[in-house]
Amino acid sequence: MGIEPGRLHFSWISSAEATKYVDVAREVAKEVKALGPAKHFIKKRAEVA
Amino acid sequence: MLEYVEKIRKTAGKLFEEDKVDVFIGYKKGSLPMMNQPVLISNADQVDLLHWDSNCGLNLCNYLTKRTDRIGIVANGCNSRNIVTHITENQISRDQLYIVGIPCKGMIDHRAVQRAVKQKEILAIEEQGNTFTVKGKDFEDTFNKNDYLQRNCLVCTHRNPVIFDEMVAPPVEEQIEVDTYKDVKQIEGMDPEKKWNFFTRIIDKCIRCYACRNACPLCYCPTCFVDESNPQWVGKSSDPIDTMTFHILRAYHCAGRCTDCGACERVCPVGIPMRQFTKKLNKDAQELFSWEAGLTLDQRPLLDVFQPDDYNDFIR
């Protein structure tokens, strides 16, 4: 699609797995930060004349 | 394929006479050449409306959803796979259906023919076996049907119905040596930037008319996510990002269900090749889960089963 590998993550976390949730969230944040800001798939606000 | 017409009419007539069906779903000639329409007939007097040729590209399975009467329906390879999908997804029950199977040799790509006659107005089309003739005001051209097949028909590997009560003709030979996913592989080889540009370019003409959704037998939700306004999942204007969201989500809703019947592309008023979205998902389903949609009633749909040997670690 043109979304870089590493920007989109999928995971299966049960509501009982709080620690796994934290770990995954940290990991995702780290990887996405490493990629830098997204260039595509950003909806710009309508310009007002 | 013209010789099937008589057989279809006779079968439909017989079904009504024997009181086996309440409605028969087939095609009739359209008001324009190459644009055959679906038709639902309810008695034996109307069977002469029924028609079959190489312009029956719309998917009749659309008209089955949640019907409660007894239905006779014609089905070629891809349509029959959609019927299977409908049955396994509980949209219709097998006992309600009398399926008249049609071995299919592919549908004509009406846009390719239009291009071949330099966009002049075609007033009539006639088929003669493997060739067809188009006529207009001051021209007449004959083409080889195989050179003008819809792109999905060119790579079709299921021409014969997978489910039927009766066939109108013996099965046709299946195409085996086709590289179904050649185009997908090409896109997979691009880097993310190129891919983004590619998909942005193919949908940039989209006017968000949702014809692709309406023609698709898989899209039977009572309220589609694009029509919902509370909550509003996606913007309704033709903003390129909203349009991309629509196309990605539309394709994902067809994951593991699409039979590549090509109805979406056929009906698109601006000619977007949106099969490029669904084909990638079909390829993944086949490579990762050995799955092709709608081949048998014995298997649950791909996305409602779980296998302990799933290829992803996170789900185990």
Key phrases:
heterodimer, A: 49 residues, mainly alpha, 0% strand, elongated, B: 316 residues, alpha/beta, 2 domains, six-stranded mixed beta sheet, three-stranded antiparallel beta sheet, 10 helices, 9 strands
Layout of secondary structure:
The complex is a heterodimer of chains A (49) and B (316).
Chain A lengths: L17 H18 L14
Chain B lengths: L3 H14 L5 E6 L8 E5 L8 E2 L19 E5 L1 H12 L8 E5 L8 H7 L5 E7 L2 E6 L3 E5 L6 H4 L11 E2 L14 H7 L3 H11 L8 H5 L24 H14 L9 H5 L7 H15 L27
Parallel strand pairs in B: 1-4, 4-5, 5-9
Antiparallel strand pairs in B: 1-2, 1-3, 6-7, 7-8
Report on the structure:
The complex is a heterodimer of chains A (49) and B (316). With 49 residues, chain A is an all-alpha fold. Helices cover 37% and strands 0% of the residues of chain A. Chain A has one domain. Chain A contains one helix and no strands. Chain B has 316 residues and is of the alpha/beta class. Helices cover 30% and strands 14% of the residues of chain B. Chain B contains ten helices and nine strands. The A-B interface holds A 1-5, 10-12, 40-44 and B 192-200, 235, 239, 241-242, 244, 248, 312, 314-315.
